[in-house]
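Need the bound structure for flavin-adenine dinucleotide, inputs here:
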Amino acid sequence: MTIEHIVIVGGGTAGWMAAAALSRLRAGRELAITLVESESIGTVGVGEATIPPFVEFNQLLEIDEAEMLAAVQGTFKLGIQFRNWGRQGDSYIHPFGNYGYQIGSVGFHHVWHHARAHGDKRPIQVFNAETMAAYFGRFQRTQGMDRDDLPPINYAYHIDASRYAGFLRRYAEKRGVVRQEGRVEDVALHGDRGDVVSIRLESGEVVAGDLFVDCTGFRGLLIEQALETGYEDWTHWLPCNRAVALPCHRDDGSGPPPFTVATAHAAGWQWQVPLQHRNGNGHVYCDAYMDADEATDILMANMAGKPTAEPNHLRFVTGRRRLFWNRNVVALGLSAGFMEPLESTSIHLINTGVTKLIATLSLDGITDAQRNTFNRITGREYEKIRDFLILHYHATARDDSEFWNYCRTMSVPDSLTEKIALFRDTGQIFREEDELFTETSWAAVMMGQGIAMRGHNALADTLDPAKTRKELDEIEKSIRFLVQHMPAHADFLAGYCPGT
Ligand code: FAD
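Answer from helper R.:
Posting the output first, comments after.
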């Protein structure tokens, strides 16, 4: 069956990201795209922190960065600061970008470890430009500095997700996507094939299609309620299942820092996402160890200013749909699965989902090869991210609450146990199967949470210590120069993309 009409159900971040990206397929083709959404149901609208591939997603759509950031009150993000995770009082930054660069044939953190054994006691953070810029509250792209000896700056954005969805709506409608307001009441399946044939709206109107993209959020209206795809529950590894979100003013008049903050509490953690005009805040927690009132009180007591809305309470089950593409339905966003926003990966998974959909889609029809490939790759992506998130909870010395005692002592996937053991013994991190998180990411979180390297790649021992020290000096010097010449983040925003 050829694909002439794609129907996207749901208009949150997932729905409009899908609509915007798919709208580019229309050029020169007979392809209709309809997006159905219900204003009365609304969106989750709290997804605000992103990671660097999101910058590429916007570039792919040829979106003007400054225009988009102004429209969504966006700021730049250089990484995430984790507070109180390894122990209370601890703090480290998981930066975008790498520590140093490869010297000889081994990764930088091996060289750094070797240099330490020869008396160089500098912390690894001074060799990462994003970390240093974050500490000093500065931002500028290296590209704007007219020097080619400086490291590039890797960044992402903090955005107001609701405004971003609105921005993409304008983009997609301009390119021929038709938006249809209405609540879906019924889903009709084909008698033999079991495919979705059409959806019926509250108004009685029927919308038929060839391929359906389920972006209906946690409901999973098509993928679960109609097709009963099933869900893999990962709560035993990631026990948080509630969140309370509450934006606030920054009362002290400070500018937005160029990083997200994730502060661990007794039964979960709190996010702070700085936008130009306010901070997004939320507390992710586990209801077996804390109730909603206590979680809200902790959040309110640890915010930078007065709330600008009422607390928004959300429930979720961490895990993934058994199939992301089932029959002629592809699930994107919250309908595909959910992992807490600790590493800002949800919007990223929408990005990779829609990119994979476009890459595997043939308008001549849907095949098992497309579906199976999509499901296999997406499943692996989810699992790799899952393991990285579990690391944050498991690699802790915290014993001050039942929640942390559970996380510290729980059994974790074998893949993660092996990754930790290998790093501890040899400093080695293998980035397997195109996984999202880099060696620097794993090393930053492991070292930041108290997993020390006992050894390093033996090849690092073949380096000349004096020469290595000079190279490290050069890296540190160029990062210091770069950061000293950057404007304050707030000043950069004011000149480049002041919020509208
Ligand atoms: P939703 O926003 O729920 O949209 C669902 C859409 O479906 C709506 O338009 C609704 O109208 C429509 N709909 C539903 N049922 C019907 C029906 N019957 N008829 C018609 N329309 C219907 N991600 C990040 O990347 N970074 C973060 O910092 C981050 N923080 C988060 C914090 C929390 C607490 C949560 C819960 C999520 C967070 N996320 C984050 C995830 C992010 O919010 C979502 O991935 C993203 O917003 C996508 O949501 P969605 O579009 O899938 O669903």
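Comments: The chain has 15 helices and 21 strands. Residues 368-394 form the longest helix (27 residues).
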